[in-house]
Amino acid sequence: MPHPSRSHLVLIPSYNTGPLVLRTVRAARAAWNPVWVVVDGSTDGTGAALDALARDDTGLRVLHLPRNRGKGAALLHGMDQAAAAGFTHALAMDADGQHPAGAIAGFMAASAARPEAMVLGLPLFGPEAPMLRVRGRRISNFWTNLETLWAGVGDSLFGFRVYPIAPLRAVMRRQIWMRRYDFDAEAAVRLCWRGVPPVNIPVPVRYLSAEEGGVSHFRYLRDNALLSWMHLRLMLGFLGRLPRLLARRALAREPASRAAARR
User: Fold this and answer.
1) Residue 240 falls within a domain, yes or no?
2) Which residue range(s) make up the domain with 56?
């Protein structure tokens, strides 16, 4: 087992993912220490199974929410507890087996090298990935790039990420909307607005079939309506921040221009 980190932890929100969450947690624990799971009001018995797992593993902690509040709410609850324990960064990882535990150490190393940044997974889809979702995310990516003036967010919806805890908690305390499926895209945009730079790392993503135990809580109409409402809010915020964002971009380009002139 890896030695425990005092600054970086893996944070896994889980809602009714069945046995997959146990496999995900075991794989994450083999790659990192510590791993925390936030059971987001699950009713499938996995909370008790995770508690049993944690009793024999000092590197695993399980937090419980009494009712389902959404991915963003579960992550915020975990980050509040992590900040109180002295952690500075959290790698968010889905419980449904889509994210590769083998990439955890590399993401954590990238975060340690750039602690001021958010480290974003750039998904590499396999042939089993639903094309409707693969193509549909291009719309969200376009709006995210526009809202950040192409600050470098490679993918707006992929949830395998290392976040600096302090700025994300500050953002979420002010934005009561960032609690459900639309959390990932809004987090990337608002952190860019705060000056948190993105670092993108390609990583494979796997969609498990029902025969493999795959579970999806994605609802096409409901969740796309959430994304549309989110991007409308962000565009209104973007218009108000546009002069500031343009000034920041100009300042960032100035040192590069001077360096090119010296060459």
Assistant:
1) yes
2) 8-254
